[in-house]
Amino acid sequence: MNINNCYNFQQFRKYAKKRLPSAIFHYIDGAADDELTYRRNTTSFDEVDLIPNVLTGVENVDMSVTVMGQKLDMPIYCAPTALQRLFHHEGEIAVAKAASKYGTMFGVSSLATVSVEEIAKVSNSPNLFQFYFHKDRGLNDALLQRAKTANFKVLALTVDTITGGNRERDLKTGFTSPPKLTLESLFSFATHPMWAWNFLTKPKFDMPHLSGYVSEGTNLAVSVGDYFSTMLDQSMNWDDAEKLCSKWDGEFALKGIMNVEDAKRAVDIGCTGIMVSNHGGRQLDGARAPFDQLAEICDAVGDKIDVICEGGIQRGTHVLKALSVGAKACSGGRMYLYSLAAGGQLGVEKALGNFRSEIERDMKLMGVSKLDQLSRKNLRFRN
Questions:
Q1: What's the confidence (pLDDT) of residue 222?
Q2: What is the pLDDT of residues 91-115, one digit of tens each?
Q3: In a domain, 231, yes or no
Q4: Residue 383 domain-assigned?
Q5: SS3 letters across 315-373
Q6: Does 271 reside within a domain?
Q7: How confident is the model at residue 193 (pLDDT cuts 50, 70, 90)?
Q8: How many domains does the structure of the chain reveal?
Q9: How many angstroms separate the CA atoms of 143 and 130, rounded?
């Protein structure tokens, strides 16, 4: 298996499926209920055609953007995702180093398997900390302080996990974090010996941001859906989000905004960014795709707040379509998780390099040398 021969999202997905035990692959790959929203997240881009310009002089292309005060060398960044050392023993360290190489932002989850302190040591690019609002207020305060001390530049409160989505693939495979040892899982580990060797011989699996506060997911195996449903505070409301924004006193975003009124409210409480996202189709099945909601949200608040399109992005053209509608940048999880599973840091670098090459080439083919030259004039909506 040679990751240098991976030229697109689907090839990395195929390699990841070979490298990972079944339950772990399906944890990345799966979504809620019938996975309708998960599929729509990508197919929604197919409903819009690009209209290029020619003879515009595109020898030198600048794809840099400034998002929530952070200068990025490319308009896509690595969204926060949990449990990365399950997918490759280097976990978040590999992603942080790859994101730094390509000058883009890395989002680190509250449920990360490497601490913000360790990530700060290896990263020279802006970092975002993704915040889950727990019932334990002491844990919430600790998460906030650790991110501040580690000099993370952006805090993003996830607002679409008020309870766990119905991830039936996880129910079928019995996926938990850390993995339970059963006859089925032991067989899957045995048929993936390199993964099993690394999992068993590398430093013990842990979620360091939670250690000392909760045992679920660290010493006690639990499904992610159960974790959301039992450990997170279902009474969280707009007042809580506003107080958290004030405590952070910096670049602050809400992750999981899908309607205009919520986007306007985010502006009112002092947010500097929003991620238009449905959690990769893993929460409410039947929800709209982020790209389908993007235009009305950008029209309402795009001049007041940075709007990020997150979900379903597999190609450079998807990024250009989102930016043409009005997004400031894009982000994704699976777009680098499959590559992490396939090849660690080198895999993530290859995936980000693929995106960079596609975006540069597609900008030239679109006849633009800077991203702010894109607009809806470059698009035609089929419906």
A1: 66
A2: 999 999 999 999 999 999 999 999 9
A3: yes
A4: no
A5: CHHHHHHHHHHCCCEEEECHHHHHHHHHHHHHHHHHHHHHHHHHHHHHHHHHCCCEHHH
A6: yes
A7: confident
A8: 1
A9: 10
